Automatic annotation (TrEMBL):
It is a multi-pass membrane protein. The keyword Transmembrane applies. This is Branched-chain amino acid ABC transporter permease. Its main location: membrane. Keywords: Cell membrane, Membrane, Transmembrane, Transmembrane helix. It comes from Streptomyces althioticus subsp. attaecolombicae. InterPro entries: ABC_transp_permease, LivM-like.
Length: 608
């Protein structure tokens, strides 16, 4: 007897080896949608998005992008270039050494987020979508089309892990969710970038100059955003743009080129920073610049303690306060009970030596502790310092610091007849008070960077790294752990005190409330530690960039009010979840968090 079977009418699923996208659209159509939507988004920025100038940025003009339209224009142009590179257009292959599809997804996603944020903001602030002009409708539709096309680009899907057939419903759900997350990560991942070919030295130096120029332009634009909506759009565009460049492999190539010319890169970075005051029309944003440098210098000093030596210090801001109070006491301020006025070089020495002494006094009895116990002791020191300067007011204790009133009316510095408190004309540019202190702080930052580089590559620097990686093994190899840690503690404290001497003159006043463990305004110990971890422990550029972000972002997000720390904390949690090694990690820490990465060919003495 013959049994007939009916063929199933269900369409067969794609073979596991067949790449497919998150959305079921053919690859050629998806690529065309991504490119077409990105081009239309660029075109839409030259149209009016609203009929009234009541929305910040005045998006009512035709043919002249302004405000948030400029950010969408930049994002759309970047997405268009990556889309063209994915087609293999001649001359654009250098844009995507690690592949184009992941870069397209991030660039399109950033453009979509910025455009829709703008459209939603216009509708919410002006009272509905009726306030949108054709350009607003076009950019919303174009970026949505581009996003659909980008998400449909094919990628290699990971195989699901096997599961027990007798698994419960909850276990099945966890398995499916884990696989879905693995698929999502694979959709936005890219391959390893091909090695960058060696170019003539002058060409590589020109590339480094171009990178620094782009960095200066981005920083100047971000610090100069005039209203809240524009800064939020800048954060969206900059974040997704950096992710797109990273996935394309351009960041890796830029790192390789700059590594070949480290001294030129470092010098060029300081030259680019020195040009910042000349890009400003007044002293307003130079104020932020000098505070960022103070914060960054202290964070770099903490990086020696935490990043190189691996010592968790939760009271580091106290050393900044020691340097500031020491300099204020000898500044000639009428509030100082000492009544002396030291020249700048002597005040700097007093502040640095005072912090050094406190670092040794605190470190000597406590550095035999490890881990959480050391963190608790340093946290206690930070609070003891604040309470002590608050009580030395002549009533609760000796009259040294004026208690909660602090030391006020600290005079401006005068270095070799150059008064930093008044404006000066240099080459047709007017350099104001904060710009003067910006240049001084930039010089001190250069000194701190030099100390960090030289100490990190020295014998003591290698001992710090050995203690950080495994203190027991380091002690077994003959390293004097206590002595090495005490040196790290003393050097870090000295650098913090050095920055504190300048901070006292910049702020005119030093008070105990400036040196808290945590607060909404940096610098404080929590923000300093976050800057080191966020930027990348053990590197030079990491804490500098982390400090700049952690100072600039809270300053620009003051419109959030009581929700500012909530948003800030949420952003840190997400960053630590998806990039725990920091924004600019050294190779060793990157391998610790990403075991599947290739082993480095060569590690420098500090793993940087």
């Amino acid at each position: 007897m013959t049994t007939q079977t009916t063929a199933s009418k269900t369409v067969a699923a794609p073979a596991p080896d067949t790449p497919s996208g998150l959305i079921g659209i053919p690859a050629h159509l998806a690529r065309a949608l991504a490119l077409g939507g990105s081009v239309l988004a660029v075109v839409a920025t030259f149209l009016a998005w609203t009929w009234t100038a009541a929305f910040p940025g005045d998006l009512t003009y035709y043919g002249y992008p302004g405000g948030l339209q400029v950010l969408v224009l930049v994002g759309g142009a970047l997405a268009t270039l990556f889309c063209l590179a994915s087609y293999g257009v001649k001359g654009l292959g250098w844009l995507t050494p690690a592949g184009a599809d992941a870069a397209v997804k991030y660039a399109v996603l950033g453009t979509f987020a910025t455009a829709w944020y703008t459209v939603v903001s216009i509708s919410a602030e002006l009272g509905g979508v009726v306030n949108l002009e054709p350009g607003g409708h076009l950019v919303a539709a174009a970026t949505l089309i581009a996003l659909i096309g980008a998400l449909a680009l094919p990628f290699e899907r990971p195989e699901p892990d096997p599961i027990d057939p007798e698994a419960t419903g909850r276990e099945q759900f966890k398995h499916d969710a884990a696989h879905a997350m693995a698929v999502l990560r694979a959709a936005f991942s890219s391959g390893s970038p091909r090695p960058v070919r060696t170019l003539p030295s002058y060409a590589e130096i020109l590339i480094i100059v171009a990178m620094l120029a782009v960095g200066l332009v981005v920083f100047t634009y971000g610090i100069g955003t005039e209203y809240d909506e524009l800064f939020v759009g800048f954060l969206i565009t900059a974040g997704f743009g950096f992710a797109a460049l990273n996935r394309s492999g351009l960041i890796a190539h830029a790192s390789q080129i700059s590594a070949r010319h480290q001294n030129i890169t470092v010098c060029g970075a300081f030259v680019a920073a020195a040009l910042f005051p000349f890009t400003q029309t007044d002293d307003q944003y130079a104020t932020l610049g000098v505070y960022i440098l103070i914060f960054a210098t202290v964070a770099l000093g903490l990086n020696i303690v935490v990043g190189l030596a691996g010592l968790l210090d939760l009271g580091y801001v106290a050393f900044l306060g020691v340097g500031a109070y020491a300099a204020a006491l000898v500044s000639g301020s009428p509030s100082s009970p000492l009544g002396v006025h030291f020249p700048f070089w002597a005040a700097v020495l007093v502040g640095a030596i005072a912090s050094l002494v406190f670092g040794v006094l605190i470190g000597a009895p406590t550095l035999r502790l490890r881990g959480d116990y050391l963190a608790i002791v340093t946290l206690g020191f930070g609070e003891i310092f604040r309470i002590a300067v608050n009580n030395t007011d002549g009533t609760s204790g000796p009259d040294i610091t004026n208690g909660s009133n602090g030391i006020a009316s600290i005079p401006d510095l005068n270095i070799l007849g150059f008064d930093l408190g008044i404006a000066h004309d240099i080459g047709g540019f007017t350099i104001g008070r904060f710009a003067n202190y910006f240049f001084l702080m930039l010089l001190i930052t250069a000194v701190v960077v030099l100390v960090f580089r030289r100490s990190g590559d020295s014998r003591i620097g290698r001992a710090w790294v050995a203690i950080r990686e495994d203190e027991t093994a380091a002690l077994a190899m003959g390293i004097n752990g206590f002595r090495v840690k005490l040196i790290a503690f003393a050097v870090g404290a000295t650098l913090a005190g050095l920055a504190g001497t300048v901070q006292a003159h910049v702020t005119y006043t030093v008070t105990p409330e400036q040196y808290l463990f945590a607060g909404t305004t940096p610098p404080n110990s929590a923000f300093l530690l976050a800057a080191v971890v966020l930027g990348g422990m053990g590197t030079i550029a990491g804490p500098l960039i982390g400090a700049a972000l952690l100072f600039l972002i809270p300053n620009k997000l003051q419109f959030l009010g009581d929700y500012q720390l909530l948003a800030f904390g949420l952003a840190l949690v997400l960053l630590m979840r998806f990039r725990p090694e920091g924004l600019i990690p050294n190779r060793r820490r990157q391998l610790e968090f990403h075991e599947e990465a290739d082993a480095p060919t060569v590690l420098s003495k500090t793993g940087a």
